[in-house]
Amino acid sequence: MNSRSFFxxxxxxxxxxxxxxxxxxxxxxxxxxxxxxxxxxxAGHFADDAIGEMVGLGIIKGLDSGHFGPNEPVTRxxxxxxFKRLRDEIKGLVPSSSSSSISVASSTSSSVASSATSxxxxxxxxxxxASSTSSxxxxxxxxxxxxxxxANGYNVMKNVSTGQVxxxxxxxxxxxxxxxxxxxxxxxxxxxxxxxxxxxxTLSFGPRExxxxxxxxxxxxxxxxxxxxxxxxxxxxKGAIGISTPSSVTLNINxxxxxxxxxxxSSSVAATTTISLSAAAYGVTENGSSMTVTVVRSGITTTSVxxxxxxxxxxxxxxxxxxxxxxxxxxxxxxxxxxxxxPISNNNSIEGNRAFSLNLxxxxxxxxxxxxxxxxxxxxxxxxxxxSGSLKFSTNAYSASMSKGSVTxxxxxxxxxxxxTVGYSTNGGxxxxxxxxxxVSGTLTFAANETSKTFTVPLxxxxxxxxxxxxxxxxxxxxxxxxLIEPSSTTVTINL
Length: 496
Prior knowledge:
This protein is of the alpha+beta class. It has a 9-stranded mixed beta sheet, with no helix packed on it. A 5-stranded mixed beta sheet has the order 2-9-7-4-5. The protein has a 5-stranded mixed beta sheet with strand order 20-27-25-22-23, with no helix packed on it. The protein is built from 9 helices and 27 strands. 15% of the residues lie in helices and 36% in strands. The protein is globular, with a radius of gyration of 24 Å.
């Protein structure tokens, strides 16, 4: 095999970022993670730190605002430009315009190449996947990232004990530089000063800040009934950041009297019935023939609800790597799960892992969406052997606000796609069970093709706490041939 064939078929972008640039990584020190910038870089990936550091230095960039393409092939021309950027960084030189961007799309994808050049992004894709990768996002690469609400909508009871609702504004796709965004929580069918306290102002994001929390007061108005709405809007970004969807969502202030007396009404179901994908991420081997995906319904199950599902191209292309799948489920009263399958194509080429997304949309019957989007990875059986795999927490340190009421913990199943289980439990810490948090334990069951699952630890309102209390969590007793890898224990820090 000649050298050009080796680099274009075997060497993935993450190998370059993590190995060829090793000298730069050791001198710079830890900074941001690649997974904090790009949705297709799994947390804990062996090149997670290297990708983040190289992006932060401007040496390597992404396919678009949220995708890096960690398993896409590279060319010798790309390698030359990457080394030039590295040399310029080490010598403190200002990069020339000729090295600000690289386009490697074939002539059949000239529009993608043009887009990559205009947005100064380094594209890592082959001609077979360029067009599909481009369709993932219409947003140009922006090192400052984009701000948006962390959900497509929010629900709160008007007489909740806290009397408030917490709204998170997230910054994804990049975190370089500072910027600001204006917010306005007003309008809708709710009456300001009667159902809620209106909120407006400007949020300022400093360099590397990736989220902001806003708390809005909910008033217990006893003179009106039914669900009331508030319009939440982001607008007028300034500085390094941009704005992306969802930038305008609705907050439902639900009436508990309606929920308790009319379970069949859509307003009550909206607050108590959720439809979700069964996992936060999925995986399948290329020779696995199909991927099974389960859609689950939780909460009230006495009514009929529905949801639509579909697949969307990523680095994997429909018709080449998998067969596009879409449809609509109707959950009858009492039904809690539905299953659909995605056919997977097999070939004999060493292409690296490819991915597409699974999406839920259009809930009916008043239901709301939980986990509505997940990445599905096709593992290349020629180049990436997959066995029983290993289990680990997504990070060795979590942080959560006491006022949020809970913290969600993610566990990954890596290197395997078969069914496995693992036990989890809270295990001490400086926080006190029953005062600072509620102790939890149980077993996570990963069905075939499920590679990421979550569980929740309730946080208790403790007026005597000074903050900084910790909760220790551990994984135990993996089954199905899986093993535990680090981090198999983690810590949650509870902040006020």
